[in-house]
Specification:
Helices cover 0% and strands 61% of the residues. The protein is an all-beta fold.
Length: 106
């Protein structure tokens, strides 16, 4: 089977202030652009080192290990999508002005 999987993550445009803790909910959208149904897909979202995990949607399916949230054995029909959320606290030092980076894969 051939599948074309696309992963998109958004934070809703949250502003992070150096020297503070900001709670952010990210939306992880996984689209299957076909042409076949996708089965057994594993979706992983790696957290930046400055993040602490708070919660995720579909807690029964999502598992967390330090720094990673994973949803395993996901099925997505051709042309379909699944949407998950991950809530984290971002803790930054007052001198920290680098971007917070999140990586997601499917």
């Amino acid at each position: 089977s051939i599948v074309d999987i696309q992963v998109t993550k958004t934070d809703g445009g949250v502003t992070y202030t150096p020297g503070s803790t900001t709670q952010v909910t990210y939306t992880v959208t996984v689209d299957n652009n076909g042409p076949s149904d996708a089965t057994g897909v594993s979706i992983s979202d790696t957290l930046d080192a400055r993040m602490t995990f708070v919660s995720s949607s579909d807690a029964g399916d999502g598992t967390t290990t330090p720094g990673t949230v994973t949803w395993a054995d996901v099925s997505i029909p051709s042309g379909g999508q699944v949407v998950y959320t991950v809530t984290v606290n971002i803790i930054t030092l007052s001198s920290d002005t680098t971007d917070v980076v999140r990586k997601g894969t499917a």
